[in-house]
Amino acid sequence: MNSDSDLQIAGDILEVPHLLQTPREHPATVAEFVGLARSIAADRSQWEHLVRYDTTSRWYHRLRTGPGYEVWLLSWVPGQGSGVHDHGRSSGVLTVLDGTLTERTERGARALRAGAQRVFAPGYVHEVMNDALEPAVSLHVYYPGLTEMPMHTAQHCEARTAPGAVPA
After folding, report:
1. Nearest C-alpha neighbor of 136 from the set 81, 87, 83
2. Mean pLDDT, the chain, whole residue set
3. How far apart are CA 63 and CA 44, in angstroms?
4. Helical spans, DSSP H, in the chain
5. Are 36 and 27 in contact (CB under 8 A)?
6. Phi, psi of 157 (to 5 degrees)
7. Environment class of 87 (CB within 10 Å of its CB; exposed 0-12, middle 13-18, buried 19+)
8. d(CA 19, CA 24)
9. Fewer CB within 10 Å: N-end or C-end of the chain?
10. Per-residue pLDDT averaged across 112-126, rounded?
């Protein structure tokens, strides 16, 4: 008897684009929010001309709103980061559009390159940084729209990687 779960058999549904439904005008499920982020990412004409780089603080622009959700475009020059935070009662999808960002959580650190996506639920604590030598651009979808971003102490995101290890 095979005891593998459906997820083990199918893998991560977010990594299999043909299993995602075409997004509706206004998404309502996690898969649809992921699809919305992917469709915006794929159409550079929707966002590329808006990007600005600010050396004094992270630049951001609200790209779109819909019933209960917001889509934000952010740029990150080398060295800029979010600080350790969560998103209050909002769930979200983080998509890297250009460059590489590092996400740190209590479980460790991982490099997110262009095309990478992270989905998170309310209360998810993380820090996002541009540790690279080139600027980065990311897209953030929040449902419900972002109303708070509580900051946390750095101990919530101490990477548990061996010294010199490459983030996953």
Report:
1. 81
2. 85
3. 13
4. 6-10, 30-42
5. yes
6. -125, 25
7. buried
8. 15
9. N
10. 96
